[in-house]
């Protein structure tokens, strides 16, 4: 928002900052009758242009408000205080200039603010100042391990996100959620029993489902991520978490069996003074 405030010898330019009109500069000037003059300010961004008896508020050379000598005579030229001219999006010349108007400039800069919610970060420029009607730059939401991007707080699911044709301030937060996966139980030679897949959420521990498989002549000795027992082993009903970080993955655990009729002999000792062996 910009506001031009002027009389016969001086005009001041204000910008709306945090809900308060803040003076950002001034320039001495005389508004001649019957002449054409242009009074630039901050690189011709905001200024006054006088053509005949018309006074025009301009932004970047574009006329955004036109008033006449008669419109400002009571407040400005008669010396009875300060006239107010609003730089508005209306170029019809119908705006009155005796009051303080609060209308957004057609070339205001807007602020784009991006934030990361829990369990994620952002890459890209998270605080941007973008002229009205132009595009912001790309911002990407990056989930932590075991999590995935869900959406932005304005329901957009674009990732990376680029806000285009910006006409208002934007402040959004990226939302992330924990991945989910399943554990499948393979009987690995069992001759009876069945087990449903078990649902897990990343970073949430729970006990494995109790074994339901049986195998004639064998006893169940636990689970393993490899059918031959060469992977990671787990006990029956062990409390586990984070068996995978991949969303939607299925982790298979294979039943491990010990021969009940031919147990594995691990220690044999023979006494030198006896013909008996101890197992």
- Mean pLDDT, nearest integer? 74
Number of domains as seen in the coordinates: 3
Whole-angstrom Rg:
38 Å
Q: pLDDT under 50 segments (min length 5)?
A: 29-45, 71-107
What share of the residues does DSSP label as strand, in percent? Answer: 35-45%
**Which class do the helix and strand fractions yield?**
mainly beta
Helix content: under 10%
Q: Counting H and I runs of at least 4 residues, what is the number of helices? A: 1
Give the biggest beta sheet: 5 strands, mixed
- Helices and strands, in N-to-C order? EEEEEEEHEEEEEEEEEEEEEEEE
Give the terminus-to-terminus CA distance: 92 Å
Question: What's the overall geometry?
Answer: rod-shaped
Number of strands: 23
Biggest β-sheet: strands ordered side by side in the sheet: 16-15-21-18-19
Could you explain the architecture of this structure?
This protein has 279 residues and is mostly beta strands. It folds into 3 domains: 2-86, no CATH class; 109-178, no CATH class; 180-259, Immunoglobulin-like (Sandwich). The protein has 1 helix and 23 strands. A 5-stranded mixed sheet has the order 16-15-21-18-19, with no helix packed on it. The protein has a 4-stranded antiparallel sheet with strand order 3-2-1-8. The protein has a 4-stranded antiparallel sheet with strand order 4-5-6-7. The model is unreliable at 29-45 and 71-107 (pLDDT under 50).
């Amino acid at each position: 928002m910009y506001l031009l405030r002027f009389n016969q010898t001086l005009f001041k330019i204000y910008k709306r900052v945090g809900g308060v009109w803040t003076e950002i500069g001034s320039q001495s000037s005389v508004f001649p009758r019957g002449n054409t003059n242009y009074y630039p300010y901050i690189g011709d961004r905001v200024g006054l242009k006088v053509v005949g008896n018309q006074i025009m508020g301009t932004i970047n050379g574009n006329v955004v408000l036109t008033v006449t000598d008669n419109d400002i005579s009571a407040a400005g030229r008669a010396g009875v205080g300060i006239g107010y001219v609003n730089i508005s999006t209306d170029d019809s010349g119908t705006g009155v200039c005796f009051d303080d108007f609060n209308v957004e400039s057609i070339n205001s800069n807007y602020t784009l603010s991006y934030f990361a919610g829990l369990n994620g970060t952002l890459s890209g420029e998270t605080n941007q100042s973008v002229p009205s009607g132009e595009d912001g730059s790309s911002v990407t939401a990056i989930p932590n391990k075991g999590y995935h991007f869900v959406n932005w707080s304005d329901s957009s699911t674009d990732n990376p996100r680029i806000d285009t044709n910006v006409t208002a301030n934007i402040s959004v937060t990226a939302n992330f959620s924990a991945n989910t996966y399943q554990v499948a139980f393979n009987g690995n030679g069992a001759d009876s029993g069945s087990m449903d897949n078990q649902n897990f959420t990343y970073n949430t521990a729970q006990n494995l489902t109790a074994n339901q498989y049986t195998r004639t002549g064998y006893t169940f000795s636990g689970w393993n991520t490899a059918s031959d027992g060469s992977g990671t082993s787990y006990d029956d009903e062990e409390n586990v978490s984070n068996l995978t970080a991949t969303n939607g993955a299925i982790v298979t655990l294979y039943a491990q069996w010990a021969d009940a009729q031919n147990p594995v002999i691990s220690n044999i000792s023979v006494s030198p003074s006896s013909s008996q062996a101890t197992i």
